[in-house]
């Protein structure tokens, strides 16, 4: 198999998780697309350094993390959410755990999140749906739900925390550290 | 693990000690100070660095933030576009390019001689149906999009007879609002507004002297009142683009840089119908390759004894709350 063919297979397998990893730290989805392309281009250029005995996902996310830190230095904090190597490393841990959910593809893994979303109720669910599905800002959600801005933030953060715990429950027990 | 027993009763619960999150009744209690370090929900960056004890919580929040954003932006066509874009850049790398140079020259000469210029397009261009599907998805978001609209009408001889310019705000679901100045048949209507809330289409002109409203289903009747200056079917841009694969033969003819340097795909559309009543004869679109959004549409349409060019230039999104599609009277 030619290196380019192997790389295309690896890219197809991991591009969605790397994109989600970038979306966790970049405000702008268009910037995430740019950094995503750059990540895989760098990965291609240094593919000879990749140890094939190790999983590809963490390796390519490591490249994405370095590009994110560079991006943050160049463009400033307004474009990239708070991140340092430690936080990015822990976010990567989250993605490693997510990858252990039994599924053949990233999209199938997202079914687990869809299932957790279906179980979420009340204002946390409403806030998550309005923010992520309908693209409303916290202020707009506050107006829509008739509550305060800070209350919306708490609902979103608590909703995310619940979803996180729900996903952890879907990782096979023997895999949980 | 208790997953679903969080309640929205924050005020009734005791606060945890700073830097010491704990769980109470299955619910995670987080110091308020930590919440401020989650800048995914704020417009401004953090003033300083997050404390070490907040980083696990912050990373969990951000992991879910990324997964939720990914969940709500899954798009198979966009995914293929991303992969194709990376592969195109890999293939354009100098080392790879050098290896293929002799082949490219030979292949180009052969293709130029055999199929003509447009067949030389890079194989990595996405299919037109994938690109248009991405545009439909982008327009299907419940967001009002702003366009500058220019309508140029010419007679049978091709001589320009009228030119109108409008501002269009459009949302999926047959909602639109068109503002501009209008004149036809020697009548000056001055400021003119035409809108639809998805159920009713209405028009207001002549400082309020001219008012019309009609169910959207009867828009053809209303259309006749405008002397074919405006084709209502083109104002619902989401529906217009969605119908294109059905009505037209589509092909991606080029990847070109937009005014801001971002790559855009040029898509040509030719009407599948050859009868003279088919108003849309041809069109082309520019779509931002990264977002999939349509940035420009040009339509050539014909009627009995006239032709019309309809140009929509995307201006951006209308801030939420500023788009009003309902009848103003």
Output the strand order for the largest sheet of chain B: 8-7-6-5-4-3-13-12-11-10-9
Number of helices of chain A: 8
Element string of chain B (H = helix, E = strand): EEHHHHHEEEEEEHHEEEEE
The count of helical stretches of chain B stands at 7
Measured by residues with Cβ under 8 Å of the partner chain's Cβ, the largest interface is:
A-B, 76 and 58 residues
Query: Strand content of the residues of chain B, in percent?
Result: 25-35%
Strand content of chain A: under 5%
Helix content of chain B: 25-40%
Overview of the structural elements:
The complex is a heterodimer of chains A (177) and B (329). Chain A is mostly helical and 177 residues long. Chain A has eight helices and no strands. Chain B is globular, with a radius of gyration of 27 Å. Mean pLDDT of chain B is 75; it is low at 1-20, 99-112 and 114-123. Chain B is 27% helix and 34% strand. In chain B, a hairpin with a 2-residue loop joins strand 12 (294-303) and strand 13 (306-317).
Helices and strands, with pairings:
The complex is a heterodimer of chains A (177) and B (329).
Chain A: H1 3-23, H2 29-45, H3 56-75, H4 85-99, H5 106-119, H6 122-133, H7 138-145, H8 149-168
Chain B: E1 22-24, E2 27-29, H1 32-35, H2 55-71, H3 76-91, H4 94-114, H5 128-140, E3 145-155, E4 160-171, E5 175-184, E6 187-197, E7 200-205, E8 210-215, H6 219-225, H7 237-247, E9 248-257, E10 263-271, E11 280-288, E12 294-303, E13 306-317
Antiparallel strand pairs in B: 1-2, 3-4, 3-13, 4-5, 5-6, 6-7, 7-8, 9-10, 10-11, 11-12, 12-13
Helix pairs in contact in B: 5-7
């Amino acid at each position: 198999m030619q290196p380019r063919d192997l790389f295309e297979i690896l890219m197809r397998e991991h591009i969605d998780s790397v994109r989600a990893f970038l979306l966790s730290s970049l405000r702008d989805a268009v910037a995430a697309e740019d950094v995503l392309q750059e990540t895989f281009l760098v990965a291609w250029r240094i593919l000879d350094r990749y140890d094939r005995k190790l999983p590809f996902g963490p390796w390519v996310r490591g490249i994405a993390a370095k590009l994110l830190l560079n991006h943050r230095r160049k463009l400033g904090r307004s474009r990239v959410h708070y991140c340092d190597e430690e936080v990015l490393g822990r976010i990567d841990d989250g993605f490693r755990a997510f990858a252990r959910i039994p599924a053949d593809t990233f999209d199938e893994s997202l079914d687990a999140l869809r299932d957790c979303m279906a179980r979420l109720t009340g204002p946390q669910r409403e806030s998550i749906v309005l923010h992520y599905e309908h693209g409303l800002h916290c202020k707009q959600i506050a107006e829509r739900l008739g509550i305060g801005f800070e209350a919306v933030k708490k609902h979103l953060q608590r909703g995310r925390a619940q979803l996180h715990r729900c996903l952890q429950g879907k990782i096979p027990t023997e895999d949980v550290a | 693990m208790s997953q679903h027993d969080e309640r929205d009763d924050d005020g009734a619960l005791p606060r945890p000690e700073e830097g010491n999150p704990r769980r109470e009744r299955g619910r995670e209690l987080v110091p308020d100070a930590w919440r401020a370090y989650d800048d995914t929900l704020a417009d401004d960056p953090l003033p300083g660095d997050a404390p070490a004890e907040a980083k696990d919580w912050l990373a969990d929040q951000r992991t879910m933030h990324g997964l939720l954003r990914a969940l709500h932006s899954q798009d198979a066509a966009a995914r293929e576009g991303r992969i194709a874009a990376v592969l195109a850049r890999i293939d354009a790398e100098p080392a790879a390019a050098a290896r293929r140079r002799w082949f490219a020259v030979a292949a180009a000469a052969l293709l130029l001689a055999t199929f003509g210029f447009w067949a030389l397009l890079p194989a990595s261009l996405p299919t037109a149906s994938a690109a248009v599907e991405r545009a439909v998805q982008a327009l299907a978001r419940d967001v009002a999009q702003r366009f500058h609209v220019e309508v140029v009408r010419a007679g049978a001889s091709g001589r320009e007879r009228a030119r109108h310019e409008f501002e269009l705000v459009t949302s999926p679901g047959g909602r639109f609002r068109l503002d501009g100045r209008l004149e036809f048949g020697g009548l000056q209507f001055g400021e003119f507004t035409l809108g639809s809330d998805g159920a009713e289409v209405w028009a207001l002109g002549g400082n309020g002297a001219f008012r019309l409203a009609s169910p959207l289903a009867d828009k053809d009747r209303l259309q006749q009142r405008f002397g074919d200056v405006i084709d209502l079917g083109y104002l619902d841009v989401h529906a217009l683009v969605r119908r294109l694969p059905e009505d037209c033969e589509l092909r991606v003819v080029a990847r070109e840089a937009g005014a801001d340097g971002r790559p855009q795909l040029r898509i040509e559309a030719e009407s599948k119908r050859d009868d003279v009543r088919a108003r849309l004869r041809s069109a082309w679109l520019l779509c931002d390759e990264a977002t999939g959004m349509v940035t420009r549409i040009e339509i050539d349409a014909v009627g009995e004894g006239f032709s019309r060019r309809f140009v929509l230039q995307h201006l951006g999104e209308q801030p939420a709350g500023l788009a009003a599609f309902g009848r103003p009277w």
